[in-house]
Amino acid sequence: MNTHSPLPAPGAPLQHYVSSAPFDLQSVEAMTPEQSKVFQASQLRLMWWKFREHRLAVISGILLAVLYFGILICEFLAPYNLHTRNMDFIYSPPQRVHLFHDGQFVGPFVYGRQMTLDMDTLKRNYIEKKDDVQRIRFFCKGDSYRFWGLIEGDRHFVCPAVNGQLFLAGTDRLGRDVLSRIIYGARISLTIGLVGISFSFLLGIVIGGLAGYHGGIFDLIVQRIIEVLQSIPSIPLWLALAAIMPITWSPILIYFGITVILGLLDWTGLARAVRSKLLALREEDYVLAAQLMGARSSRIIGRHLIPGFMSHLIATATISIPGMILGETALSFLGLGLRAPITSWGILLTEARSVSVIAFYPWLLLPMLPVILVILAFNFLGDGLRDAADPYK
């Protein structure tokens, strides 16, 4: 049986099977709404979608945002003033927060304490008084302070009970609240990484950009300088540069001095990354076109080359910030970094340099926890940004 349609008669017009409807690109491509959304998305939106898939990076970014917001209002968040001393509670261990007393819900509170002195070891022992319930207050009046050294205030997010105590992280050898000093120390330890990476970022982009774009003898000299700096052990170089600073300098000058030192030692890796990228990009046609139009080297590097891999630079800088925080902590712990009355996490850890202190008062090591959390958060955030920098991968 023949299933084919019969041939048209001789002279009859041929039938056309081409649609006469207007040409529609979207209908030809037949893209789904999801495909159309990706096809029309901008580069930043693609990077955000890629970054959002990295759950640890998102959580780390939120944590760092909360911490950096907290340093703006650390006077309000801290239960005590930075310099408040509680001489009756020297080396007091952390207090536990309770919600129920004698089977009844009371709300967050701590028990009062009574100090006894061990005459054999001269160690202070603190005993909780179960009949002294001290409710924790919120959004209350407490120690007075100067907000950012400018505005007088006495409002706190959390306060001890009236005539009570609240030492959630214990006290040090002068009876100062360790938690309050950790909150105040975050302002210095977190900002020194940002200021230092800004200085390092500037040096790395300028020196690495010129070396990669021009090459020649300048590139040779820069590479030898970088190799010499990277061959010197970090800690002895930190100690040597920190020892140069006069002891008569004010704490603010020492803060900026430490920042400059950390920036001077961290720009080498960034400069090499910029140099290697520019060595490849300077051969592109759009660079030649800019040169033929008379654009200067600074404009070509700043407007055409650097923006092409800025996302990679941001990821690299994010991973470099923890190194600067560790550098400040190490220098301050060794006594060659920041000095009192400035307070940082490194300075707080100097209280725990003695083995006997660690054995009897281990809570003095608590400033180490925010250092670990911040470094891990920056590393996870850097991994997420590095993956998001190439959303098409």
From TrEMBL:
Pfam families cross-referenced by the UniProt entry: BPD_transp_1, OppC_N
CDD domains tied to this protein: TM_PBP2
InterPro entries per the UniProt record, alphabetical: MetI-like, MetI-like_sf, OppC_N
Primary location group: membrane
Domain called ABC transmembrane type-1: residue spans: 186-382
Gene3D superfamilies: MetI-like
Keywords: Membrane, Transmembrane, Transmembrane helix, Transport
SUPFAM superfamilies named in the record: MetI-like
Subcellular location: Cell membrane
Superkingdom of origin organism: Bacteria
Residue ranges crossing the lipid bilayer per the database entry: 56-78, 190-215, 235-265, 305-325, 360-381
Family: Belongs to the binding-protein-dependent transport system permease family.
Name assigned to this protein: Peptide ABC transporter permease
